[in-house]
Amino acid sequence: MKMTLMATKTSIWQWPTLSGRPPLLAVLGPLGVVLLLVVSANLVEFSFMHIIRSGRPFIDFMQNLLVMPDWVFMPQLLTKMLETVEITLLATAIALVISFPLGILAAKNASPCPLIFNVTRNLLSVIRSLPELVWALVFVSALGLGPLPGVMALAVVTVGFMGKFFAESIEVVGENAVEGIQAHGANRLQVIWYSMLPQAMPDFIGSLLYILDHNLRAAAILGLVGAGGIGYDMVMSMRLFNYNRIILIVMSIYLLVTLLDRLSVRLRMKLIHGQAREALQ
Amino acid sequence: MTSDTLPPKPKRFLWIWLLFAALVLILIARNLEINFTTLIWGYQDIIEYFSRYGRPDFSEWRHYSALMLQTIAIAFWGTVLAFAIGFALAPFASLALTPGKISHQTARETLNFLRAVPDLMLALIFVSSIGLGPLPGILALGFHTGGFLGKFFSESLDCVPHGKYDAIAAVGANFPQRVMFAGWPSVMRETAGYTLYIFDRNVRMSSVLGLVGAGGIGLELHDTLRLFNYNQATALILFLIGTIFSIDYLSTFVRSKLK
User: Fold this and answer.
1) Contact at CB, B32 and A220, closer than 8 angstroms
2) How many whole angstroms separate alpha carbon B227 and alpha carbon A268?
3) ipTM of the assembly?
4) Interchain contact B105–A (C-beta under 8 A)
5) CB A54 within 8 A of CB B130
6) Which residue, of A46, A136, A224, B9, is most buried by count of CB atoms within 10 Å of its CB?
7) Cα distance from A61 to chain B (closest Cα, Å)?
8) What DSSP string runs through B64-97?
9) Domain count of the fold of chain A
């Protein structure tokens, strides 16, 4: 009796494969990852002692954050947050205008010739490969401190991403509408304008919302290198250990990002899946 | 005759919206005291400035490669941490699998919180609490992107046909068994794709973590630009572009194979 119970117990935890042994990938994959972690442990100066010793200062730091917020800082905080939002909006709008034609050129089915397609696609890739903060560093040392280098850095990187997303949403449009318009003798531009763009639009607006979300987060840290926004105040209060300001800044960024996140999820659901999907969410 | 049979043209307010958007943008530019005309008039200065980046100086390439390797290692460790967080939280955050309403809400809000704080800000917090070095960078990347991976994973788990969950629940599987035998095997490909995408993103991010003292190549770049060493800065930027470009290319290639 006891034996059969044991037998059923063990058979429940068998792997659901024919042989009952774990699949090769499920063993080799994690093993490879662990191996890479061990090999690179030296590079990242990993040690368990360091982690254990870090616990105490981290808790101390968090306790220091539990102070009365510095309400006098509030007006300055609000202007800086407004500046952050403005940098986000302006950069995204500039990038939208530039990446619209670039996206069409970088889409395989809308591009006039393979050469232009390849050149644009790789150009977008190169632009994308440098993070905003590197561009911001370069522009700050060119134009001086202030929001202008921030807007330009953010716009440049956003062109790289938005152009790619836009091209990808054009590439997956249905062939039927394209052939239908072509059958009426439409030229290339008309095909793009009347059959490809309307189909790609919902997808594209979805990625635009995602980018807006991402850019707000990026704009919040551009100030680290002096490119405008709330980031500068964050670094300064961190250096001066003004915990009563840090808590205000972190909370306000969290609230703003969360608000935009929720809003964009709502909008995206409506745009892409219609009302039915929203009920599921 | 045809004009009688056609339905009336739908009214479109697109132009009004565009005008409104343009107005708002102009007001924003005013408020930020940005003047784009000075940018246009100063084009000669701009060309002169960027021409300073023309002569890359690769004499310290050994040092740069070591830093770049460290940057990639930070991104890798961060991605593994993020995967662990996503793997642990996603089944609870997924509506189709979650054992209860409270655990669902808790997991979702935790993921939202992790996502909301930008990673460099997290790095700043970790650096000032536990000191300089790659560890705060790994923690910042891991926690921030863990929020993303958890969200992506839970969405994939929700999209699995519910028959699979029902079938395995009908033969008496409990929550961990449903997750391990019906959940993850069904979304393995997407999971791998998302993780690769996050690794790609983390390499890009970890190259600027050095700005706040969290290890990697970023600090070197910051210092060279501060000292106006344009030749070395160019070399560093080219290094960055090359590495990130090839990792981006590789991960896109693997992801397209996964689909």
Assistant:
1) no
2) 45
3) 0.81
4) no
5) yes
6) A136
7) 6
8) HHHHHHHHHHHHHHHHHHHHHHHHHHHHHH-TTT
9) 1
